[in-house]
């Protein structure tokens, strides 16, 4: 099976239309149809259901697409690796990071990466491990940096712990409750929080209260972005819980009061996760190392918590 055939199949699957796939690839629609028939004959199963508006993947097609994407990505990475071994400073590295990982590590890692590879492209998406897992498997992502609640991933991937961190309660500068020194004193406050699909990774405002026998706080605002959440808190009397690293850069800490509470609020450790069965390209390996070094540097500077 040729790579060009896989590209025809992937285009049709992604666009849901043979005509659109042909247009994207600058090929004829009969050529796309013929390629798909050849692939279906070779694998011995229908990969698409044809309907009036286009095509849709069958169950076999979904499985084949997953493998086809992995093959295409490995071919791309192989070519880039060869180019980088030859001394060419080009290529692409794709990373998924949570907000705390990005805000904490990228300001130090990216400048060093671009000094070494000025013509390379770094693609950074914000997300959590469940959303990144399949892309890691297929090679569409080189690695992930963030919390890792799914312990089974430890066996499937190469996992490296970078740092621990703590959450802090924050309100706007001059908040009337800023002098409070315990969670019990915050019972009457109204709260904002980041609400993501991966709820296990959220700043769980209720958990520290419930663990201490207190009533769950009243959450009146849910945001899909950590930055939006902080903007709302900075301009209202709402409170929230955030990783304290978010108040370093690029978010301006002078807009917030950080509550000096007696109770420690431990957050999930931050890990770097990559495939165990496939090496990174030299470019991706260097970026991975810059992320690792950024964490070590921030630990030495006292900006993030050391690993136990």
Short structural description:
The chain has 308 residues and is α/β, with parallel strands linked by helices. It has helices at residues 3-15, 18-25, 29-43, 59-85, 99-116, 129-138, 153-156, 206-211, 226-234, 282-300, and strands spanning 48-51, 54-57, 92-97, 121-126, 143-146, 157-163, 166-172, 190-194, 218-223, 240-243, 256-258, 265-266, 270-275.
Give an overview of the whole structure.
By secondary structure, this protein is α/β, with parallel strands linked by helices. Helix content is 42%, strand content 21%. The protein contains 10 helices and 13 strands. It has helices spanning 3-15, 18-25, 29-43, 59-85, 99-116, 129-138, 153-156, 206-211, 226-234, 282-300, and strands at residues 48-51, 54-57, 92-97, 121-126, 143-146, 157-163, 166-172, 190-194, 218-223, 240-243, 256-258, 265-266, 270-275. The strands form 4 sheets. Strands 4-3-5-13-6 form a 5-stranded mixed beta sheet, with helices on both faces. The model is unreliable at 197-203 (pLDDT under 50).
